UniProtKB/TrEMBL annotation:
Matching InterPro entries: Dymeclin (IPR019142)
Keyword entries, A-Z: Lipoprotein, Myristate
Gene Ontology cellular component list: Golgi apparatus
Name assigned to this protein: Dymeclin
Organism the protein comes from: Penelope pileata
Short name of one Pfam family: Dymeclin
UniProt family annotation: Belongs to the dymeclin family.
Taxonomic lineage of the native organism: Eukaryota, Metazoa, Chordata, Craniata, Vertebrata
Length: 669
């Protein structure tokens, strides 16, 4: 296409693209490549932009797929890219814009072609497309697999070895994106891919030695959150002649520009949501999650998962273990800061979950932080805004809390952190509250939301498990937190009575009509009684371990004492009710002796005095409540579709036709 052309609609008629996808083989040494690669435009910054580009070039890509077995032009293009990457590091150091520019353009075309190929052909067919040669169309020789592996290895080398500068930002981003595209076979399969040609190359052979460096680089890309440089930074300064779309091209560049076009105009402002993030950080995190969730090879575990689960702090002076061949060191303080700041996204929350669950070094470091509120508050916000989040994001946030509450030190320290003016908590003005009390409020709110909306037993179980883990260390509970604990029990009590009444009426009705099937109220009753039992155990755990620290809970208990009367003689709750009944009786007696019409302050004073006077041996000891998160037997069945749904919805400038997606339904993302 001539230099005056700037319309996407003209791409199908572009002479250079038509030649690339035509019937004529093009040698890798042909000057044509300099002409083809001398184009400039703003790289697409959204899937909508790329959709426009893909729709405009689909006929060209389809033609290339059909004719490549005879021409080998895809392989020639890959070889041209590989030859240009050999000097990229030196080019970056010498600020050689032209060399980096053309290498980026070559990779961009390769990535666009790959996306079409992967959605239309099998892996075996794609591999053959990399083996076709111009001299003997349709024939491949002994080196038929080398070019594909060489490209994959080159992309990894580019990511880990090229310094991240303004002029290299775009090609670094394109390399990460192309690896994501290579791995996107999974999107087009309903079943989890356990064997794959691309997986084999990445898990073995020439790519394997770069495992730890790749994981480390992707993590640092996430940590640094580098913004995309202004459009044209990696090429040349934009001309201002009449607001035209053309960039100034340095002398020596081939004059036959195949196109100069923009998506929304060169230098146009990015979409608002992208102005606030780093495309490279986002894409790097998605690639990291995809790599970490590749299934293990039959003969070896996933090395990328090994690297993520074993890396250490740069402050750790102990020797790297030989039992963890892919371990490395990274700055934990910087990682912690990034994790705290980026919890708005599913992918950052999923990374935090993986690190806390699988990397003991990170978990130990996080639990030792004295500013744990910086991490916990964003997680609580996710749960608080449960209506606006997808269920997977809520689950990840909840499991993170469950993992944290497995540690007694965490459960004690959160009650020592005092927060001021929690603006996002709308139910009540909280001018001052401990982090522990706020955590209790948010978890209880999540339980109540689940009871009225989603009714997910798994969510209930994990919420109650987190509360149970904390219960023995409840300290100085805020009066509102104490009220909400008892209010939740009240809600459960009413639900129990309602189900019991429905079961009774149903049983009576069945005596009159033996034909109609009975609803399974017994199962409903069993579930609600399990939850009530758990709540009673949480209250009991607090009373037996830290009664004197929680006068507000005793106050709330006394205020709603009638709620507990029906459960005293219930066979499922008799044992656990003994302590609660004793506490209610003991403090009720002291209040009666103090006289009528007592102020709130006076009641709390009596409770504090009584807590000291109550003999501890009168309270029956129960086993400590401790729940540990255990991952499901086949976690990949959950995590791989989840990660790819994040890639589908969150990847920068990647578009897949929703009708082609097989891994998950489009409303499940």
């Amino acid at each position: 296409m001539g230099a005056n052309s700037s319309s996407i609609s003209e791409l199908p008629d572009n002479e250079y693209l038509k030649k690339l996808s035509g019937t004529e083989p093009i040698s890798e040494n042909d000057p044509f490549w300099n002409q083809l690669l001398s184009f400039s435009f703003s790289t697409p910054t959204s899937s909508a932009d790329l959709k426009l580009l893909e729709e405009a070039t689909i006929s060209i890509c389809t033609s290339l797929v059909e004719k490549n077995p005879r021409t080998g032009n895809l392989g020639a293009l890959v070889k041209v890219f590989l030859s240009r990457t050999k000097e990229l590091k030196i080019s970056a150091e010498c600020q050689n814009h032209l060399f980096i520019w053309q290498a980026h353009n070559a990779l961009f075309i390769i990535c666009c072609l790959l996306k079409v190929l992967i959605s239309r052909v099998s892996e075996e067919e794609l591999q053959l497309h990399f083996t076709y040669e111009e001299k003997t169309p349709g024939l491949y020789g002994a080196e038929r697999e080398d070019l594909l592996e060489e490209l994959l290895c080159c992309l990894i080398q580019l990511i880990v070895e090229i310094p991240l500068l303004d002029i290299t930002y775009s090609i670094s981003l394109e390399a990460v994106t192309t690896l994501l595209v290579f791995l996107s076979w999974q999107l087009f399969h309903k079943e989890i891919l356990r064997e794959s040609i691309v997986h084999r190359y990445l898990l073995h052979g020439r790519c394997l030695p770069y495992t730890s460096r790749l994981v480390k680089t992707l993590l640092y890309n996430f940590i640094r959150q580098e913004r995309s440089p202004p459009p044209g930074t990696h090429v040349f300064q934009q001309q201002t002649d009449g607001g035209g779309l053309l960039y100034g091209i340095a002398s020596g560049v081939a004059t036959g520009l195949w196109t100069v076009f923009t998506l929304g105009g060169v230098g146009s402002r990015a979409a608002p949501q992208l102005e606030q993030c780093s495309p490279l950080a986002n894409q790097s995190l998605l690639l990291l999650l995809v790599l970490a969730n590749l299934t293990d090879a039959p003969d070896a575990p996933n090395p990328y998962r090994q690297a993520i689960t074993s890396f250490k702090n740069t402050q750790d002076s102990s020797a790297l273990s030989s039992s963890h061949p892919h371990t490395f060191q990274i700055n934990f303080n910087s990682l912690y800061t990034a994790l705290c700041e980026q919890q708005r996204s599913d992918q950052a929350t999923l990374l935090l979950y993986m690190l806390l669950h699988q990397n003991g070094n990170v978990r130990t470091y996080v639990l030792a932080r004295t500013d744990i509120e910086n991490l916990v508050l964003p997680i609580l916000e996710i749960l608080y805004h449960v209506e606006e989040r997808n269920s997977h994001h809520v689950y990840m946030a909840l499991i993170i809390l469950l993992i944290l509450t497995e540690d007694d030190g965490f459960n004690r320290s959160i009650h020592e952190v005092i927060l001021k003016n929690i603006t996002w908590y709308a139910e009540r003005v909280l001018t001052e509250i401990s982090l522990g009390s706020l955590l209790i409020l948010v978890v209880i709110r999540t339980i109540q939301y689940n009871m009225t909306r989603t009714r997910d037993k798994y969510l209930h179980t994990n919420c109650l498990a987190a509360l149970a883990n904390m219960s023995a260390q409840f300290r100085t509970l805020h009066q509102y937190a104490a009220q909400r604990i008892i209010s939740l029990f009240s809600l459960l009590s009413k639900k129990h009575n309602k189900v019991l009444e429905q079961a009774t009426q149903s049983l009576r009705g069945s005596l009159d009509s033996s034909d109609s099937p009975l609803p399974d109220y017994a199962q409903d009753l069993n579930v609600i009684e399990e939850v009530i039992r758990m709540m009673l155990e949480i209250i009991n755990s607090c009373l037996t371990n830290s009664l004197h620290h929680n006068p507000n809970l005793v106050y709330a208990l006394l205020y709603k004492r009638e709620l507990f009367e029906q459960f005293r003689t219930h066979p499922s709750f008799q044992d656990i009710m003994q302590n609660i009944d004793l506490v209610i009786s003991f403090f009720s007696s002291r209040l009666e002796h103090a006289g009528a019409e007592l102020s709130v302050e006076r009641v709390l004073e009596i409770i504090k005095q009584g807590a000291v006077a109550l003999p501890k041996d009168r309270l029956r000891k129960f086993p400590e409540l401790k729940f540990k998160y255990v991952e499901e037997e086949q976690p990949e069945e959950f995590f791989i579709p989840y990660v790819w749904s994040l890639v589908y919805h969150s990847a920068v400038a990647l578009y897949w036709n929703p009708h082609d997606i097989q891994l998950f339904t489009m409303d499940s993302g």
